[in-house]
Every structure is written in C-alpha cells, then in structure tokens.
Design a protein that fits this description.
3 domains, 399 residues, 10 strands, Butyryl-CoA Dehydrogenase, subunit A, domain 2, two-stranded antiparallel ribbon, Butyryl-Coa Dehydrogenase, subunit A, domain 1, alpha+beta, 13 helices, globular
Length: 399
C-alpha cells in the first residue's frame, strides 16, 4: 500500500465526496448528450481541484502530480470525462508551460486554467500520429511574427478549450528549419485558428475530439514556448510534459476500472441465481479476485510513476510508460469482466458499466499507444534509441 500523508488522505476524501455526489449523478447525461460538463468544471474550481500543480506564485497550490492523481482517480470512478478535466488542468500542456514558459506565458496559462479552461495540446496530425516528428504544420518567421499553417487531428477539447499549445516545425526568414517548437494561441482571439469538425467517438463523449486547422495564423515571437536547450533539442524537452499526461491517462483508466469493479462487486452480492448470491460460485469469485489484483498492481504503478517527478520536473519516462501500458490494458479487462458479471444488464445503456467499457477503450490508444510505449520502455531499459524504421528501408521506399 502506497503511504499517503494525512493531507493527501483529506484531499482524497474531499474528492471522493464530490465525485460520488453531483459528479456521479451527471455522468450518464454527459455521455448521452455529448455535452462538455461545465457545471462539473465549476464544482472542480470551487473544490480547488483545477490548477493544483500550478506554483503558488502564479495562483496555484503548488501540489504534486500524486496529489492530482488522487483527485483524478476519484473523479474517474464516477465520471471519466470529469476525470480527464482534472488531468488536463493539472498536467500535460499546463505542465509544459509552467516548466518552460516565460513569466508572461505562465501568468496567461495559469490564469486561464484557474478560471476553468482546459488547455489543448496540439501534436497529432492526420498523417502524423505515433510518429510525431513527421508533423507538417509549420511556423514561418516573417519579420516580427510567425505565420502558422497546417492541421491537427484528435485534439482533446477542441471547441471547448481556449488555450492551445500548438507544435509546429519552425523555419527562419531564410526558410531554414530550426526545429520543432510549441506556440500558444487562444481560440476566438488568435485569428486563423479554426475548429473544423468534431470526431464522433465510441466513448468519453462529453469531451470533444476535434480537427483543427491553422490558416495563415499569425502569432508574435512571445507566443513561442522556448525550452532551455532551444529549438533543436527543445521538442524532446516539451515532450517530457507528456510523461505527466500519460500518468494522468493511466489514472483515468484506473478510476474507470475501479468504478466498474465496485459496481460488479456489489451486484455479485445482490444478484441471486440457483437460490444463492452469484458470488457464491467460484467462477465469479475468481473473476473478482483477478480484477482486484489488476487494480492493486495498476494503482501501485500509477502512484509510483506520479511520485517519481522531482520538484518542478516531470515523472520518469519509463515509469510513466509502464504505468500507462499495464493500467490501460488491465482496465479494459476489468471493465469487460464487470460487464460480464452483470450479464445482460451490463449490456444495457441503463447500466453505467456499459458506458465505462466504452470509455476505457481509448486509453491503450490516446496519449501514446500501448505498442509505442512498449518501445519507450524497451529503449529505457536497454539505454538506447530504438528507431521504428531502418535507413535502408527508407531509402528503398524513396526510390
């Protein structure tokens, strides 16, 4: 059992109270209407659950990623969309800005998040998913501005998020590439940023996944988030923020699975067949045992990864990848077994487990697929880069 401090236990209890009350009561409607839960965002703000990891000098609480994980876990048991809001107002894009942004950028991002905005991190493109460095969105320096053109897809929060951290290939005034950089832009304020369409998704329907385009979008040089190592190596620094995002994604999957497990556990005591509760049968007992084992192991990996972050830094890359791979795959298994325990009732949209099975499926894909993250883990333990293509193959393909 991971040892939590008295303050963390109080934080966890406060989050649980909110989650199991109004947040849980809204989950089915959020899924059915596919509407972003602004009322839950207000509840998170009132509870002090957004911007927890923002330093106190910028209005936050200066809490750790583990603190954010504890809240995310509780919210996700009740409503996975609300759990994702907690992740993305404490990790990911906001983490990158708070680590590498200028004072003015930090003030801007912190103020927007604390006001309830969920920043969007814009990396994925229609032709560049796992291979992010193949992105084609470009930012051309023209005098005292950058002009950005390109398209991004599967942008979580597109259409509701205001602050966007946009990754693009940066070119100087001579047309020479300088590296990949991240630019801040604000929807409805930065001209040229357009929400093109919303992707109809299997689960997590209350938070949009959108395609976004940039058409001659002009931003000042002050919009460029510049890591200490500059543009050449800065993309790797900015991507370190994804370690926190991956821990957050793993936490949402964990919370969903825990919620499904607890519903199935209660049902196994209530449901009777052949004159006895179904948990009197060994087949059900073993399912529950396997589910509890997977949850315990997942929680240990997630907490360990979250706690690996040094002050002002990000979680360990390998630990974050391990946590996301194991937890996302285990959560799918747990949710499916919970549905099986409910039988036909679990297959009904009147049962929250049906929604949980759909919601949890995303987490072996978004934020780094399980396959790519296995390569990340392998590269970490072997201490070498493991490219996914050989020069010979690339040259042959080019011919």
């Amino acid at each position: 059992m991971f040892a939590l401090t008295p303050e963390q236990l109080k934080l966890q209890a406060r989050a649980r109270e909110l989650a199991q009350g109004p947040v849980r009561g809204r989950a089915a409607e959020v899924d059915r209407t596919e509407q972003y839960p602004w009322d839950n965002v207000d509840r998170l703000k009132d509870g002090g659950f957004v911007g927890m990891t923002i330093p106190t000098e910028y209005g936050g609480q200066g809490l750790s990623y583990l603190d954010a994980v504890l809240v995310t876990e509780q919210m996700s048991q009740a409503c996975s969309v609300t759990g994702r809001v907690v992740v993305e107002t404490n990790m990911g894009a906001i983490s990158a800005v708070m680590a590498y942004g200028s004072h003015e950028q930090k003030q801007l991002a912190a103020g927007m998040v604390l006001d309830g905005d969920k920043p969007a991190i814009c990396i994925t493109e229609p032709g560049a998913g796992s291979s992010a460095t193949e992105m084609t969105t470009r930012a051309d320096r023209r005098g005292n501005r950058y002009v950005i053109n390109g398209a991004k897809h599967w942008i979580t929060g597109g259409g509701v998020s205001r602050l966007h951290l946009i990754f693009a290939r940066v070119f100087d005034e001579k047309g020479e590439e300088e590296g990949i950089g991240g630019f801040l832009a604000i929807r409805d304020e930065t001209e040229g940023l357009k929400i093109v369409s919303r992707e109809p998704t299997m689960g997590l329907r209350g938070i949009p996944e959108a395609e976004i385009t940039f058409e001659d979008m002009e931003v000042p040089p002050s919009a460029l988030v510049m890591p200490p190592r500059g543009l050449k190596k800065g993309f790797a620094d900015l991507m370190n923020a994804y370690n926190s995002q991956r821990v957050g994604a793993a936490t949402v999957a964990l919370g969903i699975a825990q919620g499904a497990y607890e519903l199935a556990l209660d049902w196994s005591e209530t449901r009777e067949q052949f004159g006895r509760p179904i948990n009197e049968f060994q087949g059900i007992q073993w399912k529950l045992a396997d589910m509890s084992i997977k949850l315990a192991a997942s929680q240990a990996l997630v907490y360990k990864a979250a706690a690996s972050a040094p002050p002002g830094g990000f979680p360990d890359m390998v630990m974050a990848a391990q946590a996301k791979v194991f937890t996302s795959e285990s959560a799918i298994e747990v949710a499916n077994q919970a549905l099986q325990i409910f039988g036909a009732r679990g297959y009904s949209r009147n049962n929250p487990v049906e929604r949980m099975v759909r919601d949890v499926r995303m987490f072996t894909i978004g934020g780094g697929t399980a396959e790519i993250l296995r390569t990340v883990v392998a590269g970490g333990i072997l201490k070498k880069k493991l490219p996914q293509s050989r020069d010979g193959y690339v040259k042959k393909a080019a011919e």
